[in-house]
């Protein structure tokens, strides 16, 4: 029997700050809610918050998001980004069984399908996580998906590639190359919409709900302060994805 087509919403890099504060003059809470309440985000099977939920790990930020999500019937998977702190996040989100040696990584099984989540908050994916990923993906019959905050490759983004790319990219790519039942990887961090082919895999970089950064200039240049987010439909031998704004 064909597997169910899962509809997954991805919100990334919301960079929410202290209560009552704009972040870089942007109403990031309003932007988050625009994405969350969008008509394109209805009837989700899963919502993923792929890191940099907060601007500087502010408890107010996690409290705001947890409060927005509290009545949601949709399961939510969160991972930290480089602006987050797992210890603070644990106070607001149920990360039971998902934090190992201070890193938040786990598999999530839904409707007979398996999705993996990694923690790249310190700018690397630890060897411990890479070994775990290799072992766990080998146990899954059929294709898996992977979410992490940092792209595991350069993305032809002149500003982010130069300054903020994943530090142990070679090690991460060597592990990913061994995982044959992984074709699609979803990330954030770059505040841009980019699609990159990485060997037999495709990396989808999801833009931010805070603001977008111009990928064509090597200094910081704000492209837009409007929120963007992604919807993914994933089934057997099937994947469609689109960014909305
Ligand atoms: Fe980031």
Structure description:
The protein has 245 residues and is of the alpha/beta class. The protein has helices at residues 28-36, 59-69, 86-89, 127-138, 158-164, 169-178; strands at residues 6-11, 46-50, 76-79, 99-100, 103-104, 106-110, 113-117, 144-147, 182-187, 194-198, 201-205, 212-213, 222-224, 229-235, 238-244. The strands form 4 sheets. Strands 6-7-8-9-11-10 form a 6-stranded mixed beta sheet. Strand 1 (6-11), helix 1 (28-36) and strand 2 form a beta-alpha-beta unit. It is globular and about 45 Å long. The model has no long low-confidence stretch (mean pLDDT 96). Residues 13, 51-52, 81-83, 149, 189 line the site of fe (ii) ion (FE2). The site of fe (ii) ion has 8 residues, from loops.
A few lines on this structure:
This protein has 245 residues and is α/β, with parallel strands linked by helices. The chain has six helices and 15 strands.
Oligomeric status of the shown chains?
single chain
User: What are the secondary-structure elements, in order, as H or E?
Assistant: EHEHEHEEEEHEHHEEEEEEE
- Determine the strand fraction and express it as a percent band: 25-35%
Give the number of domains.
1
User: Would you identify the CATH H-level superfamily?
Assistant: Metallo-dependent phosphatases
Please count the helical segments.
6
SS-based structural class?
Answer: alpha/beta
| Distinct small-molecule ligands in the complex | fe (ii) ion
Low-confidence stretches: none
Mean pLDDT: 96
What's the total number of strands? 15
State the strand order across the main sheet. 6-7-8-9-11-10
Rg of Cα set: 17 Å
CATH class, named: Alpha Beta
Could you tell me the CATH topology label.
Answer: Purple Acid Phosphatase, chain A, domain 2
Main β-sheet description = 6 strands, mixed
Distance between the termini: 35 Å
What general outline do the C-alpha atoms trace? globular
Helical content, roughly?
10-25%
CATH architecture: 4-Layer Sandwich
